[in-house]
Amino acid sequence: MDSPRIPPASAESLEPPNEGGAPPPAWIERGTPAFARVGFALFLAGFSTFALLYCVQPLLPEFARHYRVSPGESSLALSLTTGFLALAILLAGALSQGLPRRGLMFGSMAAAAVLNLAAAAAPNWPLLLLARALEGFVLGGVPAVAMAYLAEEIHPRNLGKSMGLYVAGTAFGGMMGRVGMGLLTEIASWQVAMAILGGLCLLAAVGFLLLLPPSRNATVQRGLGARHHLRTWGGLLARPALMRILLIAFCVMSVFVTIFNYAGFRLSAPPYALGQTAIAMIFLAYGFGIFASSTAGSLADRFGRRSLLLAGLGLMAAGVATTLAGPLVLVILGIVLVTIGFFAAHSVASGWVGPLAGPAKGHAASLYLLFYYAGSSISGSAAGWAWEHGGWGAVAGFCFVFVAAALVLAARMREARA
User: Fold this and answer.
1) Out of the domains of life, which is the source (predicted)?
2) In total, how many domains does the chain have?
3) C-alpha distances out from residue 276 to 178, 267, 269, Å
4) Domain residues for 76?
5) Domain-located, residue 332
6) Residue range 125-141, pLDDT digits in tens
């Protein structure tokens, strides 16, 4: 339907039919101990994944100076990680159809933490990039599988809230990984900071394993070949509504990563000349993202996804425009607005994937995150050319193109299931 408000009964319509006398799904509902355990476990998964993934972002200017590489080349420390993550997500989404989801996510979290320790000990730039690329590859077992787990185990009426809590965990991890890295680098070194983060994320992996209930509604399917997965992905890509959500994911992540990748270069140069700690503090804007993601998920359950998605994108556009101002306080305000808008839009869009996917939730989640991280990898490095040749004005123009495209796509979405 076209109305942005979803009546309370509409969530019930998302439940799969009880065909052939099969028992109904054993949903986990809000207010139960299991719901709280799932929320905290997936919060830890989001924290660990994004803390490890983005811990190098505040270090990009330092990498450029220390290794004498360009801003665009320094961004490879992040872009390679997200690029390999995007590819791995497809494999993880397919593999998760034949493996217990909890075990796959735990293994990915633990292996990524160990690789972060290896990156901290890397003696040169190429080996650091290798460790970061492998880290992205093993992390692919977390995001797509987490989204599929929530879509399969949480009652549809509570899915927006649970997805919002997971995205809030990603926001908290992204914030603490970046801020903590900046602070620890000032006190000791970036190597020590990365090693400490790796140890913390190992502990988070253990906590995740102890808390998360095993899947009850997932159907383990073994012996599925490449043809099955390709046919499933192809069928999903042929759905216009789902394809629009995938492209929105690419666009919003392109804007978000570009802003944070190159804000450090802008603010470390005159007239701001901020130090590492001051720049790291800007990532506290993620605190607003934690609130925005959990709030947007609940509001989408009540009032409809489309209106919340458009509002989030509008905030992103306003934020990019505000960063063009000269005063530091307005630059920071613009970054905060971009952050709030991004996490609101991402929370709503990611929660929309499951209802649009039907039974192929694992495959659909992997496609969503492929597009999402492709935006980070491709645009995050491509925007380096804009920064080097046109400064912040060119970076903002680069971002406006993607926000405009996302707004057009979002305006064409409908609340009804595809």
Assistant:
1) Bacteria
2) 1
3) 11, 10, 12
4) 34-215+239-411
5) yes
6) 899 999 999 999 999 88
Angle of helix 101-121 relative to helix 143-153, nearest 10 degrees? 160
In a domain, 29, yes or no: no
Letter string b/e over residues 245-261, b meaning 16 or more CB atoms within 10 A of that residue's CB:
bbbbbbbbbbbbbbbbb
C-beta of residue 399 within 8 angstroms of C-beta of residue 280? no
pLDDT at 218: 61
pLDDT digits (tens, 9 = 90+) for 80-105: 998 998 888 777 766 666 567 788 88
Has residue 222 got a pLDDT over 70? Answer: no
Residue 231 lies in a domain: no
3-state secondary structure the chain: CCCCCCCHHHHHHHCCCCHHHCCCCCCECCCCHHHHHHHHHHHHHHHHHHHHHHCCHHHHHHHHHHHCCCHHHHCHHHHHHHHHHHHHHHHHHHHCCCCCHHHHHHHHHHHHHHHHHHHHHCCCHHHHHHHHHHHHHHHCCCHHHHHHHHHHHECHHHHHHHHHHHHHHHHHHHHHHHHHHHHHHHHCCHHHHHHHHHHHHHHHHHHHHHHCCCCCCCCCCCCCCHHHHHHHHHHHHCCHHHHHHHHHHHHHHHHHHHHHHHHHHHHHCCCCCCCHHHHHHHHHHHHHHHHHHHHHHHHHHHHCHHHHHHHHHHHHHHHHHHHCCCCHHHHHHHHHHHHHHHHHHHHHHHHHHHHHHCCCHHHHHHHHHHHHHHHHHHHHHHHHHHHHHHHHHHHHHHHHHHHHHHHHHHHCCCCCCC
Report how far apart, in Å, the C-alpha atoms of 169 and of each of 29, 47, 94, 174, 308 are. Answer: 20, 5, 24, 8, 20
Q: Is residue 8 part of a domain?
A: no
Alpha-carbon gap, residue 141 to 89, rounded angstroms: 6
CATH code assigned at 164:
1.20.1250.20
